[in-house]
Write a structure and sequence with these properties.
The structure is a single chain. With 96 residues, the chain is mainly alpha-helical. It is built from 3 helices and no strands. The radius of gyration is 20 Å and the shape is rod-shaped.
């Protein structure tokens, strides 16, 4: 009987890992960042940064983008590892 390791690993690395991670970051982290910056705009904190001659994009957006660029591969690898471990557990318990 052929193993399920190859197809599940390829599927997790190519498709499911990046998609799950991207949806998680876009849905949860992206909306939280947009809400926080929107609240800062309403309470005139962005205008205060402009009056102090601080670029709001450099101060508010760039560090968040850099943090996402660092954390995205780490979160993707975690999703891939959990998916492969789950596929292993299912194949060992259900398919044998």
């Amino acid at each position: 009987m052929e193993t399920m390791g190859g197809p599940s690993s390829v599927g997790m690395f190519r498709e499911l890992g990046p998609v799950i991670t991207g949806l998680m970051l876009a849905g949860r982290v992206g909306s939280a960042m947009a809400a926080e910056i929107g609240t800062m705009k309403v309470t005139e904190q962005v205008d205060a940064l402009k009056s102090m001659n601080v670029d709001p994009v450099d101060y508010l957006v760039k560090p968040r983008i850099q943090a996402m660029l660092i954390s995205m591969p780490i979160l993707m690898m975690e999703a891939v590892l959990v998916g492969i471990a789950s596929a292993y557990i299912v194949s060992v318990t259900a398919l044998t």
